[in-house]
# Entry
Amino acid sequence: MEIYLDLVFLENFLMDFILLLMVGKMIHKTICLPRLLAAAFLGGISAAVLCLLHPQFVLLQVCNLIAGLCMLLLSYPLKRLEYLPALLFLYGSAFVLEGMLRFLGRFIGSRGQHRLYFLLGTGLFGWLFFHSLWKQIQRQKQKEELLLPVTILWEGKQIDCTGLLDTGNALREPTTGKPVMIVEQTLFTEHEISLPNDRCFLIPFRSIGRSNGMLRGILAEECWIGQAEQKKRYRKVMLGIYHGKLSHKAEYQVILHPAFWE
# Structure
């Protein structure tokens, strides 16, 4: 079987560069391009040498493991507890990218100039794929960080729900100046709580699809926001009662003013 060591080196150099770049994103490390290029070069050289020597399966896996660790150490300053997650990210991503290479390789030859174009194209495609995936993960993580457990105490009853911290929310009750926590009315209905018709406030608000409107405001005895050691207690909280659903997917039932998490 004829082996093109230059193509073996180039393929592994491109793959290792993309993988190390993505690992750095996943473990939140500063990207240093010269270090990344040096590590990818080491990966390409080691792959070419192993391809030339044809070691036994067990020895091959040990050599690959050592090469992976050396590339990570060369790419990023890692702490002791970061070695294993970084190595798992590296080989997990390598497994996915290798699968993509094998699948696309069925539609193109394995020699010559076409192979080189294929490697460059796959490298670019792999980077775009992982970059898009990483952005999606970050968006989901950011969204989850904005969701907080909320407990509302009303006339001896406890209402547990989820609140969305809306950093762009500036809604306040005009006479008292209190920040408003917008709450779905169904939370009170489900707990068989009758809201008072007196001692209410009228809170003007604007929403998408409506130029203006009014929320009925009531004062809750006590609210707890957050979880574990970050939980905060608030007394006499202004609740704006909303008739309808705040989230189409029922991810949250309360919209929190940023003042509740300062």
Notes: The chain has six helices and seven strands. The longest helix spans residues 112-145. The CA atoms of residues 35 and 75 lie 5 Å apart. The chain has two domains: 5-144, 146-261.
